[in-house]
Amino acid sequence: MSRAETAAGTGLHDDDRAGGPGQDGDRTPGRTQASPATRAVWSLGLFGSELLIVFRRARTLALLGVLAGVPVLVGTAVRIETRGGRSVGGNGGGGPAFLEQISNNGLFLAFASLAATLPFFLPMAIGVVAGDAVAGEASTGTLRYLLVVPAGRTRLLLAKYASVLAFCVAATLVVVLSAVIVGFALFPVGDVTLLSGNTVPLSDGILRGLLIALLVASSLIGLAALGLFISTLTDSGIGAMAATVGLLITIQIVDSIPQLHTVQPCLFPHYWLSFADVMRAPVIWTGIVKNLALQAVYAAVFGSAAWARFTTRDITA
What is the maximum span of the chain, computed from C-alpha positions, in angstroms? Predict the structure, then answer.
């Protein structure tokens, strides 16, 4: 039985919620207040349901497949180019520097793949999933049925945001795992030479890689909140996805124009590649901290805007 059918079977309607659309469904007059344990079960149930919805979609699986294919393409290209002792040129920072190291250590394919996917492929996938979170339900007519579940609008929105964040982690891990498999298969693996010139054991390099994966996933929480907010503004899932991805591309363009350097530090992608500083000794934390702080601000601002819009929205679909 689907979520919509389960909700419909309760015999409730969105208008039965306490005081209209702006109130939480746990406070309906004449009904017993749900216990904390019951509310926790509802919240976990919503989160689990949202995870299933996100990861069962063919579109989501296709996006993960594309992300998994990037390390294969990069690794194969580097393998072909480095035949006969030839080297890959690098510009000494961010992604290109990682490319130069792949032929010496397959672990660097993970870092190079993250650097290659972070500017567009990873955020595009997040934008699609986040933009579809609410608008997709509205366009298919299931959103109204979801709102009759006693967990309420706030918990439903939190469950959707949590599922988008889970996709951020999953998408990042797919890139990393694919890159590790390809890198270890095509290139030698051993002690890791950092971008600063220091050499550390492979175990230390793997730990740094896990930290980088966590930082990359964390770099997407601001975009996830922005996409969720856009998703609450429309009943068109395709429109919300297109708007989120279009806004992402626009911001990326603005961030690349030198004449706009004054506003660039306020743009959520500006510090994305700061994760490269983890591969230095000592680690340079300035850009990383700025990136995490900026993502937290975007998450707070657009998360609050999404909540304000969603809890006062008149759901007719």
Answer: 79
